[in-house]
Amino acid sequence: MTRTPITVNAANRSDTPPSFANATLTTIDATLVTNGVSVTDFFSHSNPRVIITNTEASTKDITLRAGTMDQCVKSAIGNYTLNIPAGGQVVIDQIESARFLQSGGALHIDFETGHTGIIYATGTKRGIG
Question: Residue 82's beta-bridge partner residues?
Fold first, then answer.
């Protein structure tokens, strides 16, 4: 399965406070649900987070996929499933690369059939400036 790539909307470290007003929002539709997403550079940022909404009239599940990289010493714990209430949203942060790191620093997310809403990722560039 080829996952749909989503990139982190990164604020520069000099932004005070960081602004995500122009964050790229991705619509969760049937294609995205079928493919899943790869937040391509998730673990390459400071304070990364993913925001996912659910516009359905029922609770929907999302699944964070366990990592496949050699560094993923906690990947044996397995995938992690979250419930998003009807009309609600979740903010996913504090995610361990030791459990979820994929190739290229990515985070993989799958959606329950019928899920609709919005997904976007934010973070702060590492380093100076």
Answer: 62
Paired tokens of 84: 């998003």
Residue 19 has pLDDT above 60, yes or no: no
Question: Which CATH code for domain 4-125?
Answer: 2.60.120
What tokens were used for 62?
Answer: 């999302």
Query: Measuring CA to CA, which residue among 49, 100, 107, 93 is closest to residue 71?
Result: 100
Integer Cα distance of 64 and 78 in angstroms: 9
Domain-wise residue ranges, the chain: 4-125
pLDDT tens profile 62-75:
999 999 888 888 98
CA pair distance 23, 17, nearest whole angstrom: 15
Overall pTM > 0.85: yes
Closest CA to 85 of 64, 63, 59: 59
| Amino acid letter, residue 125 | K
